[in-house]
Amino acid sequence: MSSHNQQPDADIALRVKAIESLLIEKGIIDPAAIDTIIDAYEHRIGPHNGARIVAKAWVDSEFKQRLLADGTSAIAEMNLTGFSSEHMVVVENTPEVHNLIVCTLCSCYPWAILGLPPTWYKSFAYRSRAVIDPRGVLREFGLEIPEEVAVRVWDSNADLRYLVLPERPVGTETMTESELASLVTRNAMIGTAKVQLPSSPHEQAA
Amino acid sequence: MNGPHDMGGMHNLGPIPIEENEPVFHSEWEAKVFAMSFATFGNYFPVDETRHASERMPPGKYLSSRYYERWLYALELLLTEHDLLTQSEIEERMAQLAQADTPSS
Questions:
Q1: Phi-psi label, residue A142: left if phi above 0, alpha if psi -120 to 50, beta otherwise
Q2: CATH for the B28-101 domain, from 1.10.472.20, 3.40.50.2000, 3.50.50.60, 3.40.50.2300
Q3: B74 shares contact with chain A (CB less than 8 Å)
């Protein structure tokens, strides 16, 4: 992403370094805590959490009912409640309905469940267009939603965040819950992709 | 607040920048801005105030800056408004750090 008016990275990096050193000096931030936060979001908190929720809903119909009725409580059952995911609504994709999540105002997103949002989710292009031309947006992701399928767009806010429960792919009947979780991608839980079976020529030939 | 952040339905903002296998942070400064904001959020200012701070960025600047530049703007605004830091402290420290980085010094 580039624009003429952006500050050069070196200037920003210097500014950030200055603020950091002042905040440490004044005891406002603890350098160890800063490292822990970065490590958590780089390595521990991410879409694998959401994938576990989806896989459980696919194999446990009672959990799925609870998840769709009250996402916040069902997610708490799995101990996956966390910062920026305190109030959750889970919306189900079906052959009739495709759901898409956006935050038009900025970047609200269920951090504890999906990690930090990707650049495209935070981009002006996605924020502006998801609500006015969702099918066009989905085509940019290579996803063509047939006219007879309704597209529903959910605009997140600071107090309420969404998760898409994608459709379980055909041909996964014998897979275990953790195998299913490994198929579920971040984009499928935002609604810009569907969950696909891995294309394995060996398995298809067998 | 009615500002440029209220983007739903705007036209002409271009194609969606889809990046395969993108890293969580694209540079160290992005990671630091995120972590310093996160660390101060709970202790010094509520989340709604941080949102409001980024929405107070002048529209021209808002539309020409990257995501974590907007976070930095909000962080700096809140730190200075809450008297935790002053702009002149930041400028002085930047000058010191820049000098320390110069090979001839």
A1: left
A2: 1.10.472.20
A3: no
